[in-house]
Amino acid sequence: MADFAQQLIDWQTTHGRHTLPWQNTRDPYRIWLSEIMLQQTQVGTVIAYYQAFLDRFPDIASLAKAHQDDVLAMWSGLGYYSRARNLHAAAQRVMTHHRGRFPETLDGIVALPGIGRSTAAAIAAFAFGTRAAILDGNVKRVLARHFAISGYPGEKKTETALWRLAESLLPAQQIDTYTQALMDFGAGVCTRSKPDCHQCPVQAGCVAHATGQIHLLPTPRPKKALPQKTVRMLILHCNGKVMLQKRTNKGIWGGLWSLPEIASQLDSKQHCLHTFGLAVTPAGSLPLLRHSFTHFHLHIAPEIFSVAAGSELTTAVQIDWFTPTAALAAGIPTPVRKLLQQLTASDVHRTPC
Question: Which among 20, 58, 186, 260 is least surrounded, fewest beta carbons within 10 Å?
Answer without folding.
Answer: 58
